[in-house]
Specification:
This protein has one domain (3-80). Helix content is 63%, strand content 0%. It is built from 4 helices and no strands. It has helices at 3-11, 15-32, 49-64, 72-80. The radius of gyration is 25 Å and the shape is elongated. 0% of the residues are buried.
Length: 82
């Protein structure tokens, strides 16, 4: 397949698929060059102590306050009451 054959196919991809294709191509280039691929840790902030405390509090609250059905008529009265 030549370049001019591939371009229309790439243009049909959605944004997420284009990003995935770009990642795959970059990984292949790195492998061919003998370089290591290291994935960027975008969730490191979750392991910070102050964040962990907030998450623990949020989880405890969610466990103590399970979801319940909302009475929409009662909610409308609360919203419209000054």
């Amino acid at each position: 397949m030549l370049y001019h054959d591939i371009v229309p196919l790439i243009q049909e991809l959605n944004h997420a698929d284009k990003l995935r294709l770009m990642q795959l191509l970059m990984n292949q280039i790195l492998l061919e060059e003998g370089l290591e691929y290291s994935k960027v840790d975008t969730e490191h902030w979750l392991r910070q102590p102050h964040v962990q405390v907030s998450l623990d509090r949020a989880i405890a609250w969610a466990e103590a306050n399970p979801p319940q059905e909302t009475d929409l008529e009662q909610l409308a009265v609360r919203i419209n009451t000054p």
